[in-house]
Design goal:
The structure is a single chain. The mean pLDDT is 93. The chain is built from 20 helices and 11 strands. The two termini are 21 Å apart. It is globular, with a radius of gyration of 24 Å. The strands form 3 sheets. Strands 3, 4, 5, 6, 7, 8 and 9 form a 7-stranded mixed sheet that branches. A two-stranded antiparallel sheet has the order 1-2.
Length: 561
């Protein structure tokens, strides 16, 4: 029986709300056949060892972590600015639900050095398991994903290369639980903007073997962390610096939090305006390394893949909530999931989510491609937003109510296209990579190699579009510079379309050869038809209705009720 009182006007079965279980409370590993297939492929013979860990993780994310996320969203962090004597302590107070979630995640952290060592001992790829961990976490709370993962790899990597030995040891102690432990923050953005580094006003002056930092950062996420990487002007250029809460002598460093941001979403990560008032800092660049920005930008690409995973996680959660609701909700005498228009929408969501899933996992565990992070984030961050908007629409008026989970998904998803560079910044990075590094050449080779792994059947559409993309890049390179910049966005979209299609074809080939069926080939064909085919003057109205005819096959491979 439900915990609600039965009233005279809700006595029919239509009001039996027990039928309306969404994603929360489920085991997110067990209900995701697409993730299971992906892990079988990436783990091979080690899958049997890893599966119990993934099953435990699915229960954790779908249970306690999802519940804590809702509570933290309702009771976000607060700033304790002054102590009882009026002294500035700038303490960020996180809610109990945040600490409970973080403790549980650190106790079962697939990204920790200890778990990575355990995985390697059994022959498993730690990167694949870490990717699965973050994918499941991001379905519960991308704010927590940001709080745990913001800049940790950047701080640790740069400190190991450039920090003094005593500071390096302090950083090792701070990150004893791994890069993804919530101890870092990266502070780049100022009031003048986040992407224009020439406009930075924070300055660094020599102070013994350290530096003194002065300036204001306008948007700093995870302000309750312990170690910050901060961009500042230094000897005519911009360089990254390490700042800790305490100076070497143990006294409080010159770091003040002016206020926490009152944000649209991602309330579980404390974002703040942070002032540096003569803060002790350490240059994260050595002799002969230039400004250190080159190394930092490589690490930023890893952060972009993290944001892309957040978009994919939100999209997957939106799909799960939509499938659950459409199956239970009845209108016009039958469930929404039985009605053609809703089936079309759900089929489209399934295909798009699995395409982005293929992209983000290739970025994390596939070959390292210079172009990949920007293209993957471009597509995945945007899908998180559109998929969560679709989920609100599937839920109707209920979706617009904060007691239902999809409203928070939509609020949270909006930040992903902003974090680590908006669409235009990503496009400019694609241009930089092609013009300076010829990065399109290994990218096109990767696409061709993926299509070479195709299953049986005719895949000439995808293969042909790989060739067309090469021609498009050549044509783009001959344009007037202003026109070429304006055309970057459609070019990047074309690149992402073909990239995703090629990866789905590659997955379909593996699925067939491994004896797991041919469902992924259906997904690949639907995606290629939607993104790569020329539908002619009838706009595809005369196409076969594969999305409807094979809806049950699509759904069974996407979600297990």
């Amino acid at each position: 029986m439900g915990r609600y009182l039965v009233e005279p006007f809700d006595s029919s079965d239509r009001y039996a709300t027990e039928r309306y279980q969404g994603a929360a409370g489920r085991n997110w590993w067990r209900c995701d056949p697409s993730l299971q297939l992906l892990m079988r492929r990436h783990l091979g013979d080690c899958y049997a060892w890893a599966e119990p860990h993934l099953d435990r993780l699915g229960a954790l994310m779908g249970g306690p972590i999802a519940a804590h996320a809702e509570e933290t969203d309702r009771n976000p962090p607060r700033l304790e600015k002054y102590d009882k004597w009026g002294r500035d302590i700038s303490e960020v107070v996180m809610p109990p639900s945040f600490h409970a979630a973080r403790d549980a995640l650190m106790a079962d952290n697939f990204t920790s050095p200890a778990f990575a060592e355990q995985a390697r001992a059994h022959g498993a790829d730690p990167a694949a398991l870490a990717a699965a961990w973050t994918y499941l976490l991001d379905q519960a709370d991308i704010g927590m994903g940001c709080a745990l993962g913001t800049g940790g790899d950047m701080v640790v990597s740069l400190a190991e290369r450039h920090a003094p030995d005593d500071v390096k040891q302090r950083v090792r102690e701070i990150f004893a639980n791994g890069d993804y432990s919530g101890e870092a923050a990266q502070m780049f953005t100022e009031r003048t903007g986040g992407s224009d580094l020439a406009a930075l006003e924070t300055t660094a002056e020599p102070s013994g073997d350290a530096w003194s930092l002065t300036g204001l950062k306008w948007f700093a996420s995870n302000a309750n962390g312990s170690a910050f990487v901060v961009l500042a002007r230094h000897e005519g250029s911009v360089a990254p610096f390490l700042v800790l809460w305490e100076r070497r002598d143990g006294t409080r460093n010159g770091v003040r939090i002016r206020r926490l941001k009152d944000k649209l979403g991602t309330r579980s990560v404390a974002s703040a305006e942070v002032e540096f008032a003569g803060a002790e800092a350490f240059l994260l660049a050595g002799p002969g390394s230039g400004s250190g920005l080159g190394t930092m930008m490589k690490l930023t690409n890893a952060s972009r893949l993290g944001v892309a995973m957040m978009g994919a996680g939100i999209a997957r959660r939106a799909l799960t909530e939509s499938l659950c609701y459409a199956r239970a909700r009845e209108a016009f005498g039958r469930p929404l999931a039985d009605q053609p228009l809703m089936r079309r929408k759900l089929a489209e969501l399934i295909v798009e989510v699995e395409a982005v899933q293929a992209l983000v996992f290739d970025g994390h565990v596939g070959p390292r491609l210079r172009l990949a992070p920007a293209l993957i984030k471009l597509r995945a961050a945007r899908l998180g937003l559109t998929a969560s908007s679709d989920a609100v629409e599937v839920h109707g008026g209920n979706g617009y109510i904060e007691q239902w989970p999809v409203a928070r998904l939509l609020r949270d998803a909006q930040v992903n296209p902003i974090w680590e560079g908006g669409d235009h910044i990503l496009c400019l990075d694609v241009r930089r990579a092609m013009l300076r590094e010829n990065a399109h050449e290994p990218f096109l080779d990767r696409l061709a190699a993926a299509v070479d792994q195709a299953p049986s059947g005719d895949w000439s559409l995808v293969r042909g579009r790989v060739d067309d993309l090469g021609k498009a890049i050549t044509a783009w390179s001959s344009l007037d510079p202003a026109v070429a910049e304006a055309r970057l966005y459609p070019l990047a979209q074309f690149m992402a379309d073909v990239y995703a299609a090629a990866l789905l074809v590659e997955q379909a080939g593996w699925e067939e050869r491994a004896g797991h069926g041919s469902r992924k080939a259906l997904v690949a064909r639907l995606y290629a038809d939607a993104h790569l085919a020329d539908h002619g003057p009838l706009r595809g109205l005369d196409r076969p209705a594969d999305d409807l005819d094979h809806f049950d096959t699509l759904t069974r491979g996407a979600f297990t009720f």
